[in-house]
Amino acid sequence: MMACISCYGITSVYAEESSTSVADTKSLPTIVVVGSASKSGSELLKQPLSSSIIDEQQLKDSGADKLDNALFYEAGILAQPYGKDNKFQWFKIRGFDASQTLDGTALAPNGFFVWEPEIYCLERLEIVKGANSFNYGASQTGGNVNLVSKRPKLEPQGEITYSVGSLDKREIGADYSGLISDEVRYRMVGLFRQADGQQKGSEMDHYYVARSFAWDITDRTHFTLLTSFLKKDGVPTSGFLPLYGTVLDTPYGKIDPKTNLGEPDRDYSKLEQTSIGYEFSHEFENGLIASQNFRWGRFDLNQLSTFAWGSDNNRA
């Protein structure tokens, strides 16, 4: 059996004259298109997610000395749900636990080993609420709070502050930024705070030092070095007491909200944390920006705490 396949190709060629007149050509105005991806570039109001920023001035106006204090008036955030605590930060975003990052790098909590931020040494808080925080890496369901460290300014400036407050709080801080040369700047921040806790016999001393250096290698290339050291030493608060039986009456009476059910003569908390990192960025002629950052941290906690858990289930 033989099969024969024939292929035929037909090509048609047409010639057509076209004429274009200058009057038919229109010039459109030049536009600039700006695009961004990942974690940078877009303005806050144009972001398709729920986010907010608490800047340095707002932090000062609030008088906050802890992260959960600074988040008190932020929509969608429940801060200090169990009351005041001089050991840790307690807050939830949209009813769920939230993650923290420092200058864009992860802070991985491990039980009681949780990084302790110092509000006085931060430029701002960047808050992303809900599942959109997963765009920035692994995070808790509630969202993420990015802590932005203070860094060198373009012009020399400085301040010394002293404040007192409730619970026998005393605080002194110093913040100075200066120039080493036209290309190199520095900033030094220091703080000492002493305050009693919510419960009788509890107290905590804070010591914080941060140094940073910024180097403008070229007009398009920048390098920033960030370092910090924190030490806390004192008697921790002991557990949390319920609303009923302390502030509100019950058929069984009530106790002083400052009651300490631990052993303040024996309990202690000693914390030291160190951090060093850098940020590097370069802008190419076509507007593309390449950036890279790194941070190393060490966290040492030695704590002995005795506490009782209070229940208000039988309040009737």
UniProtKB/TrEMBL annotation:
Keyword Membrane set for record: yes
What Pfam families does the database record attribute to this sequence?
Answer: Plug (PF07715)
Q: Which GO terms describe its molecular function?
A: siderophore uptake transmembrane transporter activity
PROSITE patterns documented for this protein: TONB_DEPENDENT_REC_3
Q: What subcellular locations does the record give? A: Cell outer membrane
Give residue ranges for domain TonB-dependent receptor plug.
45-143
Question: What are the entry keywords?
Answer: Cell outer membrane, Ion transport, Iron, Iron transport, Membrane, Receptor, Signal, Transmembrane, Transmembrane beta strand, Transport
A cellular component term from Gene Ontology for this protein is: cell outer membrane
> What membrane topology does the annotation report for this chain?
Multi-pass membrane protein
User: What domain of life does the UniProt record list for this protein's source?
Assistant: Bacteria
Cleavable signal peptide: none
The entry sums up its family as follows: Belongs to the TonB-dependent receptor family.
The protein, known as: Ferrichrome outer membrane transporter/phage receptor
- In its UniProt entry, the species of origin is given as Acinetobacter bereziniae (Acinetobacter genomosp. 10)
Q: What is the lineage of its organism?
A: Bacteria, Pseudomonadati, Pseudomonadota, Gammaproteobacteria, Moraxellales
